[in-house]
Fold this protein.
Amino acid sequence: MTQPSSHPPIPPHSVGTTFKVAAGLLIAFLVFQMLAIVWHFLPGIQKKLVKEFTAEPSVAAAPETASTPVPTPQTEVQSTAEATSQPDNALVEQIRVLVAESDTAFRIGDHDVAMDKISKAEKLLPEDPGIMLRIGRIFEKIGNSAAAAEIYRGVLELADLPKDLRAQTRRKLSMLSVPEGTPAPTVVAAEEGADMRDQFGLQPGATLGIVDTRLEDGSDGTKTLRIAIKGRPDKNIDTNETAVHVFFYDRDANGEVHLTDSKIITEWISPPVDWGENEPELLNAAYTPPAKPDNQGSSTSYEGYVVGVYYNSELQDTRAAPGSLANEHPLPLYLTTQNQ
């Protein structure tokens, strides 16, 4: 039988205070390290969690290609501006066509068509002084002075009206305000600027225009009419398609006015005529009184003249003195083989 040992068992060693403190410090350091790691990665984890919880249900998207970039707001604005500018350009062109057609119709005396075209232009561009003045001159031409005066007053009420148009409109309006019994202004008044002309002194839409006429009296009863004709700048004018008709009229012993029997001689002052330098070309037309019968006094007297300038056989402009001759002896609107 085994005898019990005479040595007592080794008692457990007691844990000292120093060891406990060291272990506590080590545990605290580890906890601090874990907290630091969590603090470092916490924002990313939060963002991920928020994205997962707030994201809409996913939908399969079509693959993007480099050839179809997403339009930016600036691109969309530019596209919209381009889209709106196209109708504006088309509108301007439509107005220009209507005005040109009205000018042509007015020049050849088709006042109904002229009014129809310019009225359509006015609907597209209301309160435009150029359009309104054209309407006024048509009313003048057809004898509706009251309507013309109303149009001219409306032009004067427009804001920012250019000075030249304001002066022209006032002049036209003042010429409509004539006392009863006074003859209405005739073409002679147009020679003084009453008729509407553009900045080049031409009728709107005309290729050529008469910008001045001067009549000089000779000592023997002869007369020389100097006619200044101007072409539209920057327009290639074919002189072969140009014609100027000058008519002198006499009054006989019975008071009747008729085309003179005298021969009329016309001559350009500075040939060749080309209108290439934007300067008027001058034409002289010489009038000689009809021959007197033997032992008798003159049975006729000078009455006046009518001048017309044509281009491509279409009447461009006229001048007359006195103005009544233009109404009593109107020029053809188009030249034919017979009257050329």
In short: Residues 127 and 158 are 7 Å apart (CA to CA). The longest helix spans residues 17-54. The radius of gyration is 48 Å. The chain has eight helices and eight strands.
